[in-house]
Amino acid sequence: MLGFIVKALRQYIIKSSAIKKKPFASEVLSCHLKQRHLPHWTSFSVYQHSVINDQFGFSHFNWKVDGVNYHILRTGCFPFIKYHCSKRPHEDLSFDDTFFTWLKFLNLGIPTLAYGVASWMLVKISEDIHTSKGIVKIYFLLQEDKDAIN
Fold this sequence. Notes:
single chain, DUF4528
């Protein structure tokens, strides 16, 4: 039941946002990974108002960029969308995704809101990501080495 609601909301967000001049969150994710030359690991936040949230309801999933698979842990933590990306082989993450989605639903999103507010006060490092709809600024809690060898 929750899965059906999440899918319906995701479709509504995409359709209602199609006329806006913002990139999809998925494009920002892919562009960031490419811009960083497919790092082994990265963790960043993007303001929700800067993107169209086409990954609404996804919590733990595989994401392929230029033939490289990443495990993505993702959560909406107002005012951000938070991504944690690890380069790993493809796995079935459907159980994890469902578990994390239910967990966020059952705790009414209070921990994710607290995380978002704390992040908002702590983020100091930013980077510009070049997308097909222009530049989107992403934020880091810790400085990441842009020149690390993968």
